[in-house]
Amino acid sequence: MREFTQQELVRREKAENIKNLGIDPYGHKFERTGYAKEIKDKYQDIPHDDFENINDEYTVAGRIMFIRKMGKASFFTIQDKTGKIQIYISINDIGEDSYNLFKTADLGDIVGVTGKVMKTKTGEVTLKCLKYTHLVKALKPLPEKFHGLTDIEERYRRRYVDLIMNEKPKEVAILRPKIIRCIQNFMDKRGFTEVETPILSTLLTGAAARPFVTHHNSQDLDMYLRIALELPLKRLLVGGLEAVYEIGRVFRNEGMDPKHNPEFTLMEAYLAYSDLEGMMDLTEDMYQTIAKDVIGKMTYNWYGNEINLEGPWKRISMTDAIKEKTGIDFKKEMTVEEALELAQNYGIEVAEHEKTVGHIINLFFEKYVEETLIQPTFLYGHPIEISPLTKKNPEDPRFVDRFELFIGGKEFANAYTELNDPVDQLERFEAQLAEKELGNDEANDIDMDFIEALEYGMPPAGGIGYGIDRLCMLFLEEESIRDVILFPTMKERKEVTQGKK
Questions:
Q1: Architecture of the structural domain at 6-136
Q2: What are 25-32's contacts with CB under 8 Å, separation 24+?
Q3: What is the pTM of this model?
Q4: Topology of domain 165-313+375-483, per CATH?
Q5: Ranges of each domain in the chain
Q6: Model confidence pLDDT, tens digit, residues 175-207
Q7: Residue spans of the chain under pLDDT 50
């Protein structure tokens, strides 16, 4: 049985009293004619004395965030989706019954107000209440503080309270869809078609990640929640949709930290007859378009670094970047034994399934280079062992035509000159299967239907994947992915009830 605090009991009693007055404590449709921000912006610069000749009225609605009751006249503040506005309310303007109803109001209640615009002597744009409407009784009190580190977990768990109490998450919630809309417009103008592909699959393909597993009852079949969008989109290239993209949720059964959430938003795009260079140009242009059209600036403060998105962005190979930091030249031919010896000398642990020169190159990059790439950098030339879906570099088949975009020492995008040779692709899948047998539970399955699709002929193409959440983190200058996802995945909260855990 639930136990209520004294405040909650008082609020419930007030709700009953409101009901006894013939008023629904939880309200009905209410027509508004204005919002807090637009009213304040319109009248902010008008001098106090000029309001004697202004008789403009507005009807607003919102949540009570502040009350100062003073007998027969009071001030309170309501908050709508645009911000807060002050209300002056007097028994002489609305009558005794309405004023008594107002006096029962608590912080958190939702009310409607019709009022005349005025300005106080302190210069604050205010509505003088002419009609007061109770809309919703809040049965729980608002927290006194809900923004410090001690409340961080509760902020994410109870996002609705976070949005009430703090301005920044509301700004993020409004700006994030604007960023996504900008991306869609950007892609549409360049001739891409936005599509939708399946979330459920019987194969683990498209990325190196552990999946979530679910079960299809009618077929008695285990299925995966998708970890990537890649292979269905490339099938569409085979079918003649030459420029496609999808923005959608993907699911990876991995840990949670400030940079990772088990379900996240990914965008993948594929362009027939393009290549790696085309994807670099597309990416730089897209980021700069978002910066100019949505946020309005080119420089961002992120993880203590000043990030400048002005171009041109740096382009460097993985082997050259490692050589800059360690002096080791992995462009030279070397045996696995030589690479393992270098790894041991440089304090790098190598798992059984990573005992190839390509995997060791990648381990060197992750340890000595990745976190140093602060300004936007296209890092290309990945080893073939870590890129099973990518076209070989024609000049050096040990490497593939792939790049990753790094900003602030973190990966933002992953792009390829797409592999369209079905024989080569099958060999790569088979190599992945061998890794799986060695214990790599992130290795891909063999997708024979995709091989068959490639046998019909897929045009040469460039492809890229963007982590939309991380992109939003940069543009909104947030350092935790949980601050750009309205409802992040959280560890289970162990509630303690009376006499029982």
A1: Beta Barrel (2.40)
A2: 25/134, 25/136, 25/137, 26/135, 26/136, 26/137, 27/110, 27/134, 27/135, 27/136, 30/61, 30/112, 30/133, 30/135, 31/59, 32/59, 32/60, 32/61, 32/112
A3: 0.89
A4: BirA Bifunctional Protein; domain 2 (3.30.930)
A5: 6-136, 165-313+375-483
A6: 999 999 999 999 999 999 999 999 999 988 877
A7: 496-501
